[in-house]
Amino acid sequence: MRTTEKPLSSYQAAREWTPDSWRDRPITQQPVWPDENRLRGVLDELALLPPLVFPGEINELRSELARVADGRAFLLQAGDCAERFSSCNESKVRSKLRVILQLAILLTYGSGLPVVKVGRIAGQFGKPRSSPVELVDGVELPVFRGDIVNDPAPTVAARQPDAERLLRAYHHSSATLNVLRALTKEGFADLSQVHSWNQEFVCRCPAGQQYESAAQDITWALRFMAACGADVTADRPSALTQTNLYTSHEALLPDYEQALTRHRPRTGTWYGTSAHMLWIGDRTRDLDGAHVELMSGLANPIGVKVGPTITPDDLVALCDRLDPHHVSGRLVLISRMGADRVGDLLPPLVRAVELTGRRVVWACDPMHGNTFRSASGYKTRRLADITREIGEFFRVHRSEGTMPGGVHLELTGDDVTECLGGADEVLDTHLCERYETACDPRLNASQSIELAFRVAELLRE
Ligand code: PEP
Ligand code: MN
């Protein structure tokens, strides 16, 4: 008679993971590349290029996320919905970094917790879409799937997927990372620069003035420490002058991600080297699908978007597949339920994960469950709904005794008018003024700062 064994998941029973084992799995949200040979040539070329990020950095992020899971740090993941190749220049990258640093310092100052900064940056070029086609002026066109696939111009030719774009995505990611690495290590992130991160258009608005006053307090606190002779940099001389910004994007195109996997024979570990953290979208998180298969074999921190249709059983099965060994800092569960539903939908999910005994990072994406089309026809979100969803997310975790570990935001350092509300009130009639996103509406810098003050308050409560 057979002894009773723990049932293996269908995956383990089927066979071992390899970087291309995802190819036998059902897959959705993929472009149809017109030239298979060209695609193969591009993927071969990518496979020979250097990694964009390195295993040591990926492991470091995992350790930092383990601290978040324990409640000893907070995660700020933020950036564009969809990056554009055309925004890959020093001034745009600087302005994205600036607003992320502003938010992080407000959160740290307000809560006393270190903030782990992860950008939706240097690779966030692919977008899942609700339909493969769209009607533009009565003409049916293939939908824009992000700069890594096609061009958004409304013509059939522009919308044709072009595999060459996978290479361009790699090189634009590399150029963006180069600017980020320089700025985070070369004085721009120095805490004594906290005032200079405020941009002129932000200074004029109420959130900007509140930021100025917090920046002044921070400057005084630093002077006070120095005057007392407290050497806060004794262990780490760079603590006040340098920072880390990790990169992340949705791992939507397994072809691209596979080409950038790299093996470390000494430890037998595979890393995805296109970004430090990769996440699986709400539309591609099928347990037996290609995306989950590929991510399950990589050592990176993996995010999973957790939307309203997931059940506690689905979520536990996903956690078991992606984190069979309960590695702290491995999983970031990104809840995106909508402000009205998170209070009902999140508690059973949190409980089910708690019962598995693992420590995960729970983050709140208050953007994707609160999107709607306004009367003027723009896809938008209200800052009030975004704030409310984060408040509810905190309330659920406080009552479950779990950690509200972080927030996941779509924002920009620019003065756009894409989301409604804020002290500088953006109204529906203003959306047309500076609506610049390539996909979903982003918070502008002053709305983002206003939100950070609110999150800092929640962290203190
Ligand atoms: C996104 O993060 O831009 C996105 C498409 O999210 P989701 O998978 O949660 O819909
Ligand atoms: Mn989005």
TrEMBL record:
Gene3D superfamilies: Aldolase class I. It is an enzyme of class 2 (transferase). It comes from the Bacteria. Pathway: Metabolic intermediate biosynthesis; chorismate biosynthesis; chorismate from D-erythrose 4-phosphate and phosphoenolpyruvate: step 1/7. Pfam families: DAHP_synth_2. Its EC number is 2.5.1.54. Keywords: Amino-acid biosynthesis, Aromatic amino acid biosynthesis, Transferase. SUPFAM superfamilies: Aldolase. It catalyses: D-erythrose 4-phosphate + phosphoenolpyruvate + H2O = 7-phospho-2-dehydro-3-deoxy-D-arabino-heptonate + phosphate. InterPro entries: Aldolase_TIM (IPR013785), DAHP_synth_2 (IPR002480). Belongs to the class-II DAHP synthase family. This is Phospho-2-dehydro-3-deoxyheptonate aldolase.
